[in-house]
Write a structure and sequence with these properties.
The protein is mainly β. The chain contains one helix and five strands; from the N terminus they run H-E-E-E-E-E. Helices cover 10% and strands 42% of the residues.
Length: 104
């Protein structure tokens, strides 16, 4: 009977103590810095290619993300990797992870 209860507890999806941890996966995007004139903030343009629903043609969509840049490292034209995070301000919901390539 104890075996049945143990199996029922394991199959219900509740983790046993210390065996499983929930890993929070945050979205990561890569884009180009468009503007860095603000203090500790950069604007990053992220281009995504999506297929048009009706015409099946590939279309580019550009989004501007406001990124928290703590050390003001990013400059215009840099390729950067950003990660989703808690809100820093009204518009900033992303933080700078790394600079992939510097502008020439």
């Amino acid at each position: 009977m104890a075996e049945n209860e143990a199996q029922a507890g394991a199959s219900s999806g509740t983790p046993e103590t210390g065996t499983e941890e929930r890993v929070n996966r945050r979205r990561i995007r890569e884009g180009t810095v468009v503007e860095n004139r603000m203090d500790k903030t950069a604007v990053v343009a992220v281009v995504e290619r999506v297929r048009h629903a009706k015409y099946s043609k590939t279309v580019q969509r550009t989004r501007h993300l406001y990124v928290h840049d703590e050390r003001n490292e990013a400059s215009a034209g840099d390729r950067v990797r950003v990660a989703e995070t808690r809100p820093f301000s009204k518009l900033k919901r992303w933080r700078l992870v790394e600079i992939v390539e510097r502008a020439r």
